[in-house]
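note to self — DONT lose this again. spent like an hour looking for the file last time. sequence + predicted structure for the chain T wanted, 382 res
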Amino acid sequence: MKKNSLNVLRKNKLARYSLFVALAAIFVLLTILVTRKKPVEEKPDAIPAVVIQKPINGTLIESITISGYVEAEAMIPVVPFVSGTIIEYPARAGDFVEKDTLLAKIDDEPFRQQMLQAQAAYFAAKSTFDRLEKLFKAGSATQQNYDSAKAQADASKAQYDLAKLQLDYTEVRAPVDGTILIADQAVGGIGNQSQPVAVLADLANQVVRLKVPEKYFDLFTLERDSLQVTITRPAEKNMFEDAVTSATIENIAPYISPQSKNFIVVCHLDDPGDRFRPGMFVKVQVAYKTYNDVPLINLKARKMDGSFYIYDEKTKTVKYIEGASFPNDGNNFIVPEEYRNSYIVMDGQNFVFDGQKVRLFDEALKETQSDADTNNSFVSGE
């Protein structure tokens, strides 16, 4: 009896196990059938959009740009040689003056009195010497008396001449032709050698002294004759055009500063005109190589590593172009000749990879606008 019961239990367990396996198999089969799908098509929204542009033929100039300040080639501080109260001061900043023009007048009365005293002393000494000279020639005066009288007369003459010169120095005049840059004295002030009454400069001769990094030393020394220098003074935006003039390299310092690792290059402005003045900030462009009739594209097409992408119209994919030292002028770079007629990716290049399918931005924008119009129509019930 027990044996029959055990057989029944075993048969029941086997039946239940078989049923479980069958159900599990059916479940797996259904899962495969349900989850099985067609290949998912890439949604248009998942395809990155890019902006493309073809290179434009043009001229590119390779150059370096260094900032500096305009200086007058020669700035002359005019100082009085005597000290005293200024009683006349016709000097005005900005005026052009010719040589010997009066710039300031110092009170000359004290110097006039000194001159009169020196004159009287000289006349007296001269009279004494003239008398002793006659006596000496007649043998009535000693050599010692003669020499003493002569020395006294000569010393008095020197003092008299100095007094006259100092009287003349009370009139401070322009030593050369030039424009008055600084005139900050006034009547009643004290004129002396520590403070110029005016500063003159020849504005037709202005220079910029550039502090050039050491790495460009060979460029300036070996290619000096072929370098083209342009000086620009940035003007106020929307008011005036920038002031621009060419310049000539006048001098190149033969040494490098051990502290700054720079050397000095002096550039002479060819035509400063009325828009360049000493002290003005300028940008100096030194062009060293010119490329004519080359394909150019804006630098924004390049990634951080210098690489860029081109667009294939047929496959609608992009191709990665490895970065290199493409010549550039700070705004554009020269595209390799083999890509002269290719479309260059200008925007969106940081979100694509080599061989990736892309959309053009204009097309993506139209699709987005179309979807928006469709949604608006649905909401409005049209």
